[in-house]
Amino acid sequence: MKSRVLIIFMSIIIFSLQIIAAEENEYGIVEAWFNDKNATVETVGGVKLKIGEPADIKITIKSKINGHVFIKLSEPGITKAYDVLSGPSKQDERIDNLNIISGWSNTYAWRIVPNGAWKNGNAPINVLVQFYNSQTKESKILQFTIANPHILDEQYPGSGSTPVQTSGITPGATAPKEAPFVPLIAVLAVMIMIYLGKRR
Questions:
Q1: Where are the domains of the chain?
Q2: Domain 2-199, CATH
Q3: Cross-strand pairs, 166
Q4: Of 18, 71, 109, 162, which one's alpha carbon is 20 to 30 angstroms from that of 145?
């Protein structure tokens, strides 16, 4: 029984560390927000969107190396549930930042909207940032889910606008205040430990 508890506890810690590491590595830092909610450490959950209801995504990237930084906003599913109303790129379209120097930072903002191709289910939104070090010729990738909204089979009042591609780069933007870091996994680990301890 003790070994099973130890295995569960260690698995939770390892998984928790992977989530923490998803926001930063030795090449750079990525911070994300969904509708002004911090999405860097933990995916924004509990979101319900109607078809045509806009949502805002903001990503701030800081480089620790000299080289290139590539950014892509994407959905993991085959059916694309969102259209980009405004922003620096379309979905799955790469943004290239070439020949940047250590300390470089930029903020990107998108406004997306459920298009009705996917409904009555969840549609995650991911960010992928690749840092390429021009000295070592090596790349490091940071990738995580920003939000996992549930798309309702309802039309948002006043929707029906078509996607327009406009610049969403906001270099001087101030990031929203970060929510205190209280990982859900740590709370679950404590609850499991208490439950298993009481069963003895």
A1: 2-199
A2: 2.60.40.3880
A3: none
A4: 162
